[in-house]
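Second attempt. The first submission of Phage holin family protein had a stray character pasted in from the spreadsheet, which I only caught after the job came back as garbage. Lesson logged: always re-copy from the clean sequence file. Corrected sequence (132 aa) follows.
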Amino acid sequence: MTEAQKRGGIGGSGQRLLTLLLRLIAVRLELFSVELQTEIEQLLRLLLWLGVGVFLGALTILWLGIALLSLTWDDPLARTVTIATMGLVCLGATIFAGVRIAKWVKALSTPFAETIRELGKDIAWLHDRAKK
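This time the job returned cleanly.
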C-alpha cells in the first residue's frame, strides 16, 4: 500500500478508484477476447459445414440429374418433364435450405452479449458509486 492509500484522503481514494477501474477494464477485455474467440470458432464451423453441404449437395444433384436423364433420354417429352421436375425440386430444396439457415442465424445470440451485459453492470455500479 502506498502512503496516499494509507492516509485515505482524496489522493488515496483516487488511486484506489483508478486501480479498481484498471482491474475492471482488464477483466472486461479478457471476457471480450474469450467471446471474440468463441464467435470466430462458431463462424468458421458454420462456414466449413456450409461449404461441405453445398459441395455434397451439388454432387448429389449432378449425379441424380445424370441418372434421371440417362433413363429418359430417348423420349423428348419425358426428357423435358424430367429436366423441369429436377429444376423445381432443386429450387424447392434451395428455398428450404435458405429458410433454415435464416432461422438458424436469427436464433444465434448477439455477439459479445456477455461483455455488453457486464459493461452495463459496471456502468450502473460506477453511477451508484459516484452518487455516494
